[in-house]
Design brief:
Blueprint: E1 7-12, E2 20-24, H1 33-37, E3 43-50, H2 52-59, E4 65-75, E5 81-92, H3 101-114, H4 116-137, H5 139-159, H6 170-187, E6 191-196, E7 198-203, H7 211-251, H8 255-259, H9 263-281, H10 289-338, H11 349-375, H12 386-409, H13 419-436, H14 441-451, H15 477-492, H16 498-505, H17 511-514
Antiparallel strand pairs: 1-4, 2-3, 3-7, 4-5, 5-6
Helix pairs in contact: 3-6, 7-9, 7-10, 9-10, 10-11, 10-12, 11-12, 13-15, 15-16
Length: 515
């Protein structure tokens, strides 16, 4: 529910010419003199109306009546009273040609109930007269028709119930007629005619600001915003300085800070922190943000070296552990990549050697830098820094991820026949062909005897000149087959075979070998 009226209508019914009126505050006696002074004037506005006499001449007549001038006010969202519109109101009788829907319906109901009884009596008399005439003219046909009608009526009464006709009472007809008359009177309401009048409003309570006043208001608002911003910045800077003082005084008692600093250094820092704290709560309690930030910068410069050593001291073991973990994983990955079969190998020698190089460099760097760091005191600046460890970690991780991504999208190679297996198959086929082409035993002895050089001939002993010349005989075929089998077994054990396969090919009996 609204705490105050949103709309208000003022009616002036005694003014027949152009006029004006004032809108003022009501009873303000409940206000104190100080509160009443804020109003300045009790007049809210002055309003002048024009066009009243012209409107009367246009609409006022013997049949019409003037209902007055109505001024419509509304309360805006800002709580100011605003004139919405002003209009002159007239009432005129309804036009005889215009009938309302209710009056037409009332007439129809009146005719229906008032004219139904005489119409019924007239129709009954006329039907009786017609029946008498027809009886005089055709008595026989009427009797037949009456008999047929009686039969039909009996059939109809058997099939369905006959509803008796309703009778209309005169009292009901009179009441309905009175109701329709009343409705007709209500429908004949006068016509309301409204004409908007011209109004000039002069606001006295809150005068519109000028351009210069508006500019001054904007500048004043900007000044207030700047002051609010500066106050917030001052509070933020002061809180930051105070938090640093409290936190660092507490940190100086921690074991990690004591491990990386001397007592003299910590005592010097405590004195400076105490001086700044005294200034903050006394002379510097209401200064600017620039002064607070300058003090904070001085303190950070004084304690920066100690804070850096403490951070390196506590975080370095964790960083080294992470680097060694990734290095161990990289070594396992490198060994697995090198031992892949040739048909499954997806990495080039350059990629594998690059990863091996990075791993070895990281190992050497950790060994050298860790030895240097162990020689230094924790109270001096370290040489093994967390940032350097992070750089080594990033370089090693980048190489491993590159190879992993390549394995993820690599396509499998097509299988190839091994070189050694192809050479062995060729040699076996050649040996089998040679085995099937050996001549018969007699021809072989004859051929070998003829082809052997003189140095292979054996001189017979004395007195046996007539005997046949003994010659060196070749091994039998069975022995050669055994030798070929042994050669095949030897070929199966070879990794590469150009030189050794050539030696295997001549592994059979050769006269030169015997010599």
């Amino acid at each position: 529910m609204n705490p105050f009226p949103q709309k208000k209508v003022l009616t002036f019914n005694k003014h027949f010419k152009d006029f004006g009126f004032n809108v003022n505050y009501g009873d303000l006696s409940f206000l104190t003199p100080a509160q009443f002074g804020f109003f300045g004037t009790t007049n809210i506005s002055e309003i002048g109306l024009s066009g009243v006499d012209a409107s009367l001449e246009k609409h006022l007549s013997d049949t019409s009546s003037f209902k007055g001038v109505k001024a419509h006010f509304k309360m805006g969202d800002s709580g100011l009273l605003v004139l919405d519109s002003v209009e002159a109101v007239y009432e005129k009788p309804p036009s005889p040609d215009l009938e309302s829907t209710l009056s037409k319906i009332g007439k129809k109901f009146t005719n229906l109930f008032s004219g139904s009884l005489p119409d019924t009596e007239t129709s009954e008399e006329s039907s009786q007269t017609d029946a008498k005439e027809s009886e005089a003219d055709e008595p026989e046909s009427e009797q037949k028709s009456e008999e047929e009608a009686t039969k039909n009526e009996e059939k109809v009464q058997k099939d369905e119930k006959v509803v008796p006709p309703t009778t209309v009472k005169p009292e009901n007809v009179t009441n309905d007629a009175n109701k329709t008359a009343e409705e007709k009177e209500e429908a004949a309401e006068p016509q309301v005619v409204k004409e908007v009048l011209e109004a000039n409003e002069n606001i006295l309570d809150l005068v519109a600001v000028t351009a210069e006043e508006f500019k001054d208001s904007v500048e004043l608002l900007a000044l207030y915003m700047k002051k609010d911003k500066d106050r917030a910045a001052n509070e933020h800077a002061k809180n930051a300085l105070e938090s640093f003082l409290i936190q660092y005084q507490s940190d100086l008692g921690e074991e990690s800070f004591q491990a990386v600093s001397e007592e003299e250094e910590r005592e010097k820092i405590r004195e400076v922190l105490s001086e700044v704290g005294d200034w903050l709560y006394e002379d510097g309690s209401d200064t600017t943000a620039d002064v607070y930030n300058a003090k904070l910068k001085e303190l950070k410069s004084l304690t920066g070296a100690l804070s850096a050593r403490e951070t390196e001291f506590t975080q370095r073991p964790l960083a080294l552990k992470a680097l060694k973990d990734v290095m161990n994983f990289s070594e396992v990955f490198l060994n697995g990549s090198r031992n892949l079969p040739e048909e499954m190998q997806i990495y080039t020698d350059v990629e594998i050697n690059m990863l091996d190089k990075v791993i070895n460099e990281t190992k050497d760097w950790i060994k050298v830098m860790d030895a240097k760091q162990r020689k230094l005191s924790p109270t001096v600046r370290p040489v093994l820094l967390i940032q350097d460890i992070a750089d080594k970690f990033t370089a090693l991780d980048r190489e491993v991820k590159y190879l992993l991504n390549k394995a993820k999208y690599a396509k499998p190679k097509k299988p190839k026949a091994a070189k050694n297996e192809s050479v062995i198959e060729e040699k076996i086929e050649t040996s089998e062909n040679k085995t099937t082409e050996f001549p018969a035993a007699d021809e072989e002895e004859k051929t070998d005897t003829e082809e052997q050089p003189d140095i292979l001939q054996v001189a017979p002993p004395d007195g046996e000149a007539d005997d046949a010349v003994e010659t060196q005989e070749l091994p039998p075929i069975e022995e050669k087959e055994e030798e070929l089998t042994e050669a095949e077994e030897e070929l199966d054990t070879l990794d590469s075979g150009d030189d050794k396969s050539t030696k295997t090919e001549h592994h059979g009996h050769d006269p030169d070998d015997e010599l």
